[in-house]
Predict the structure.
Amino acid sequence: MDLSYTNDQLMVRNMAREFATKELEPKAAEIDEKGEFPHETIKKMAELGLLSMTIPEKYGGAAFDFTSLAIAVEEISRGCGSTGVITAVHNSLACWPIANWGTDAQKEKYLPRMATGELLGAFGLTEPNAGSDPSAMETTAVLKGDKYILNGSKRFITNGGVAKVFIVFAKTDPAAGTKGITCFIVDRDAKGFSLGKHENLLGLRGTANCELMFDDCEVPAENVLGSVGQGFKVALGTLDVSRIDIGAQAVGIAQSAMEKAIAYSKERKQFGKPICEFQMIQGKIADMACQTMASRLLVYYAAHQKDSGKTRFNLESAMCKLFAAETAVAVTREAVQIYGGYGYTKDYPVERYFRDAKCMEIYEGTSEVQRIVIARTMLG
């Protein structure tokens, strides 16, 4: 595995880093405070091609590899955690499954407009009573003529409040367990579709996270993504990809928290000298640096497995997501500690990093679920 950047990856890193520094970081605190979706920022990102990274050139996309996407998500998340996950969800959870499993007609209909940002995407799997166990989902889809009628709800949907295209999972054969789940592309203007509760989140507050409601929602049969009964396969395959991006997001947040803590430790003086001269602080910084770098390498390795054409990379994906998520929580916690009382105020960004980081251990499969995936794979 070559750990050096390709020219394209270097270009993506530099572009995303510059954008994050100039456009995202100055607005991140306000986005968090108000809990507002960054519409204007997303438009600018679309112009840079950051919303089309998993879309083939044939449909107007940038067609970058998944290592490049991970690099971009990391850099964006360094500036703003909310914008990082908005980017990841649109690229990996919405565009990619259509590009991978969609029919030619579905690709032609959706991908060009998703590439320009005209259509933002979201992913609807989680339900009020079905989180870590998708087989417990209660949303159903019944075929009537040339349409499926969906009834149920989805919860904790990133981009939900602003998205116009939804990747939604429902049971077409409730008696068949996971083999009775089917995936659908649902349009925002579908009859019977509406938005429910908007979530007041601890962190990642600018992500338009809300509930999706399906009340006799009409979805054309031609909008089945993949084939009937293969929705669980689509979900797992998509999550394998997305977990790489969440790992990258966690790395970006950890990196930014570490950089801020190092800078502060050089400025803050106690007992007549900068606190960075105390071995206790140096030990924290050393651990933060090692954990962040190890997480980054795990993310890059998982992305490399995907880019190399490996058909199953669920082990690597789960490993990078688990380790990077727990690293982000640990590093941001130590950053708050280095800031001391100031770290507990909203005057400094580390408290926001700490709140944003916690979600890394929960969404796209909790840390406990990742450990199950890893252990089962290792045990055969």
In short: The mean pLDDT is 96. The CA atoms of residues 352 and 359 lie 12 Å apart. The longest strand covers residues 147-157.
